[in-house]
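Quick one - inputs below.
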Amino acid sequence: MYKILRKKRLNDSIVLMEIEAPFIARKAKAGQFIIYRVDEYGERVPLTIADHDSEKGSITIIFQTIGGSTKALAQLEEGDGILDVVGPLGTATEYGEVKRVAVVGGGVGCAIAYPQAKALFNAGVEVDVIAGFRSKDIVILEEEMKAVSARFHLCTDDGSAGYHGFVTDKLKELIENGAQFDEVIAIGPVPMMKFVSKTTEPYGIKTLVSLNPIMVDGTGMCGGCRVTVDGKIKYACVDGPDFDGHKVDFDELMRRNSTYKSFERDHACRLTGGVRNA
Amino acid sequence: MPNMQMEKTPVAEQLPKVRARNFKEVCLGYTEQEAVNEAQRCLNCKNHPCVAGCPVSVRIPEFLAKVSQGDFIGAYEIIHSTNSLPAVSGRVCPQENQCEGKCVRGIKGEPVAIGRLERFCADYAMAHSDKLEAAEKPQTNGHKVAIVGAGPAGLTCAGDLARLGYEVTIFEAFHTAGGVLMYGIPEFRLPKAIVQKEIDGLKDLGVNIMTNMVIGRVLSIDELMEDGFEAVFVGSGAGLPRFMGIEGEALVGVYSANEYLTRINLMKAYLEEYDTPIKKSQSVAVVGGGNVAMDAARSAMRLGAERVYIVYRRSLDEMPARREEVHHAMEEGVEFLVLNNPTKILGDENGCVKGIECIKMELGEPDASGRRSPKPIEGSEYTLDVDTVIMAIGTSPNPLIRSTTAGIEADRRGCLIVNEETNQTTKQGVYAGGDAVTGAATVILAMGAGKKAAASIDKYIRGDKA
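Output:
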């Protein structure tokens, strides 16, 4: 059992949990992920590590309750245990020689964009954080992201806070106005990462994306997480999860991620007895 | 006077029509009476070639003699003295190529059903555990050994070392110990409760099993050795699935056999109360001709598919799967398309599989494997309507250990290089065995390698450090 040390609701659907996992905390690096299984009946679900404290022996995860497995996790409270947590999996994010980087987060993806920005900021890199949300009431980690960026650009789809528009619009505006980004890293929903990559491609700015395909074991064994990158099959769990956004076949990834959509809809939820939302 | 009956005593099985739609064990096993009758067929011949055919050297004629006297616990104790997992090997060993393949009775009739009898004894002992002498924890010798991977090689190595007094810790990447016995081989061939009991037996011997520990990520082999483990055994298996490299392999509905079987066996996707999803297919093509292909095809049948095809590029004679598995699959209604090879997988407008294009093949000259190599017959392409394709064309060893451990060398296929006498890798104190060394092979060969490595590790630690 892996004990939940701290639980905090960041908005209606996003939850932060700090979990006791000393072995993982000792080795975790930005960009790596864990797989959890909430109980005997649960799926194995991958989540990127949002933060870790090797002295305390804890890791932090931030997740959105979208399916049955994340809802089951969100029902646990401080002091409860998660049956299985394995990690750190995947390879750590690698940057080239960078002076200025744009870190782009979309929704719950900001949970992962934040530690990336923090690592870069602490390494002396000039960081622009562009954080996008549907509206003001679901904004998370605003103060934290501000603290680790030279410039913080909040964007909302409905204009209820910050810039009125998508992160891609803001990113393009910054580039057009002369911002010299050596690299861009984008973390969020697949369509967002696709369009950030499309935005930077004409400018030739290297763009990293953090992919979230369907996965079972996380060690290269099932092949379920295969993605096409530069025309070749790559396994996100061992070759990634970070890839060059200009080379990823995002449309294929979106199709593969929808494999079990109908299953989620049809599967009666054993937690609430109701039917799950996809 | 031996029983001179020419054929094996038949064993009860679930009827094909019934079992093709459930996950319960196919073979129901011998009754006590049947076991005694079958064991009495052993001639107790002088050279006991059967023992030489066994990778873990089970003293077969001795245990058969006990069975024929009705002393099933005595028989079990003989088996268990050299075989840590008899309930497993009795079910999944290719006995026809090993013990039974060497049996003298097989010359003029059928060999003694050694596998069925081994299984009978193991099941009997599990059901009558009160009659067994309680497993005593051996006196510890104070030496620590780490095992990477809780599959058949690692479990066997751990069992043998624990009996010698070593403090053994197994590091397993999954949440459950057992390796391929848990994630790969289906319930209907090897019930998971049986595997769990064998593992619990090792824990009773004092073996410590740490799950959720991916060695190479959370700890390296070097760190294990710095932590006081005097030797390490690597039994990390051959887990990386291969794909054919044909068009359409990224479509929704294309699985590696590993993923398909792991969802079903380890994650129990076939049971309603478990959350892990699996596609409910109508029509399935399984590509490959090994035991894994048979397991995948028979599992698809049990999940309710109406048509299940095996697509295999050579003929039935070259098929690497056990005869028994092929026979069972055919009985259950799996259709065999031999001398057929996929050329591409076809998708619909949503990116889901709607068919597979195959080409007919013919056999030419023998290739490096000694089997006649298949050649495509030009212009013979045709399309098979399926909604699911499962690739069961083999696996390679996981590169994680070799890429994170300096000094461990692998061959060009990624298999760890070991000294054949000792199973030591190219790094001192690090041993390896099972599929990580051989590439995908059998449970019993992995068990044999684990056994050999345990003996070498004992010698190494006593010689070097006593």
